[in-house]
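re: ur msg from earlier - yeah i can do the magnesium ion complex, just paste it... oh wait u already did. ok heres what im feeding in:
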Amino acid sequence: MHNKGFIFDLDGVIVDTAKYHYLAWKHLADELGIPFTKEQNEQFKGVSRKRCLEILLEWGNMKVPQAQFDAWLAEKNEDYLGYIDKMTEDEVLTDVPKVLNFLKEHKIPMGLGSASKNARPILKKVGLIPYFNTIVDGTQVSKAKPDPEVFLIAARDLKLLPEQCIVFEDAIAGIEAANIAGMTSVGIGDKDVLSDARYVFKDFTEIDLDFIKELAEL
Ligand code: BG6
Ligand code: MG
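and the outut:
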């Protein structure tokens, strides 16, 4: 039996879908006449689709009836899915397969913990479904990161205690969620932004398999 398990966020950790989210939000924002920059898109990382639209409308000082809100939410997602549909295995971020394959070879339990309701179709597109013992996504959680719910469900599915789990995250809210859960947090991104993470790497090319071995207690 293994003592440790690994839980991965999807967007920004395994694949760079932030650029597609940006294009789809930008399209809607342009339509509504609300300025929307790449910097603003940063604030949407790890945040649920519904909350993103609420924020966008707050920026535009707009209040709309529920039916209109739902229609825009659906429009953004359809647009986003247009990009997802064209994704291939090539879009898995560099050296992510190196780590996933290593963990798989050593039969270390692996889970996905994502706020996205599109997590399964994306994993399918890039061919990574078989790596995960559990996939917990935005369709299963009621409380968004930094609430630790998504990671706690994944840990429970992997039959591990929180302290046995290592979480890879690119969002501040995700690092916070992992820390609140009592898991080991590994930030993927900027050290200054993810300063609360136990470890931070720019991306997976910086991650050595010896480090993974150590984390996994192999
Ligand atoms: C998160 C992304 O993983 O999923 C957010 O970082 C996104 O930017 C959220 O808004 C919800 O995604 P989706 O696919 O359900 O719209
Ligand atoms: Mg993310």
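cool cool. The pocket of 6-O-phosphono-beta-D-glucopyranose (ligand 1) is lined by residues 10-12, 21, 44-49, 52, 77, 114-118, 138 (CB under 6 Å). ping me if u need the other ligands too
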